[in-house]
Amino acid sequence: MKEKILMNVRIIDPSQQMDEDGNIIIDKNGKIKKIGKNAKISDVNKDSEKIDLKGYIAIPGIVDMKAFVGEPGFEYKENFRTLSQAALAGGVTSIVTMPNTKPIIDNVSMVDFIIRRGRDKAKVNLFPCASITRKIEGNQMTEFGLLKARGIIGFSDVTKTIQNAELMSRVMNYASDLDVLIMQHAEDYELSKNASINEGEIATRLGLQGVSDIAEKIIIERDLSLLSEFPCRYHINQISSENSLNVIKKNKSNGIKFTTGVSINNLSLNQNDIGEFRTFLKMSPPLRAEKDRISLIEGIKNDLIDVIVSDHIPEDEESKRLPFAQAATGSIGIETLLSLAMELYHNKSLPLEKIIKCLTINPAKILKINKGTLKQGADADICIFDLEKPWVVKAENLKSKSKNTAIENRKLQGKVEMTFLNGELLYSN
Question: Catalytic annotation on 311?
Fold first, then answer.
């Protein structure tokens, strides 16, 4: 690979508190050689590739902590190739994949398969999760130590919560001993089963069974109480409500150490967007009231929420075009993650650096991976985007295999123009 210099670009890298115009020099091995004002054209060879990026912004490649890939078992929804294409088009270079495949990633042979398959087919950095419990049934723990040794980045039962408090305490105990990351879906099963929407006036009007945010709050309160006795690397996958945020604030002020994520959907949409049974907006956790959405934004401002995720869940059209209660849950979002997040900057909800921090260095630190940064010597995983470029989301133009976007026809401002992985240009708009 030839040495490259990305010239005249605005560089925003929260890991270095950097926001300046300058250049980025990428060496022959795909590493950051020099960056910012210190990187000069005179520092590169005459035959180096020169790319002028005037008017664009460079940030570290996005680290998405929650996305589903269909391999194995659900290739008709998404596969490694299509997920990679969608991710690169969205500036995402590192993805944490969920274990609810078929078969479930809960044993060593499945881990070996998924890593090998991902290495052969994917063009992005894949960090697979294994399930916390065998077959995601919430009864018996998986072999944390063995699975970690094979390359597992963390453990999650995806959209199923560990209901049994005694089991959860054992999970935390083992996680502490083995230094593994536990990613919990906070939603009490008994309170949320058969529910498909936020509890309240809209659910009543539509004749749908709703789920109160109490279901989320109860699990968070229980887990954080356990965490005070069994400290481990604990991450709440996604929160959706003001009440949950209050619990998080209280526990953080009491010195309990944990991290929290939020879906871009819950930051950008609310229950009113569902309208008349728009099943593409059926999600878990559900879209809540506008006051909850505003609270979540404040939670990011105040460092109570650490990570923004795409919660990318591809579903085929047949499973979405059903009555709301029977329709599949989730939407695609990895390709639109950055652009939709930029809405929060353009409408003055959040500072630009704060958004980028939640998409890059924060998830990388939680995962303990050397990503999400443009520091000298780091892998040259770089997202180049135009902050002002307007575009309209059209499902047919998205690169995911499934087209179940929740923001069809939404007008966005901010578009990824290029994505580099290890110094190689893998996407150009």
Answer: yes
Number of domains within the chain: 2
Question: How far is the C-alpha of 222 from the C-alpha of 186, rounded, in Å?
Answer: 10
Task: Write down the residue that tokens 């939404």 correspond to.
Answer: 410
DSSP 190-209: HHHTT--EESSHHHHHHT--
The count of other CB atoms within 10 Å of the CB of residue 262 is 28
Mark whether 299 and 351 lie in a shared domain.
yes
18 and 99, same domain (yes or no): no
Tokens in use for 3? 């040495």
Answer whether residue 207 is part of any domain.
Answer: yes
Strand-pair partners of 21: 10
Q: Which positions ≥6 away from 4 have C-beta within 8 Å? A: 25, 26, 48, 49, 50, 51, 423
Say whether both 408 and 266 belong to one domain.
Answer: no
Mean local confidence (pLDDT), 378-395: 97
Percent of the chain with pLDDT over 70: 100
pLDDT in tens, 262-304: 999 999 999 999 988 899 999 999 999 999 999 999 999 999 9
Burial 150-178 (b: 16+ CB within 10 A, else e): bebbbbbbbbbbbeeeebbbebbebbbee
Q: Whats the size of the chain, residue-wise? A: 429
* Measured distance CA(188)–CA(193) in Å, rounded: 8
Give the active site residue among 64, 223, 311, 386: 311
Residue that finishes a domain, picked among 367, 389, 412: 367
Q: Find the CATH number of the domain harbouring 49.
A: 2.30.40.10
Q: Does residue 269 sit in helix, strand or coil?
A: coil
How distant is the alpha carbon of residue 132 from its chain centre? Answer: 19
Which domain CATH number covers 92?
Answer: 3.20.20.140
pLDDT for 164-203, tens place per residue? 999 999 999 999 999 999 999 999 999 998 888 999 999 9
Specify the pTM. Answer: 0.96
CA angle, residues 101, 105, 108, in degrees to nearest 5 = 150
The domain of 94 spans 61-367
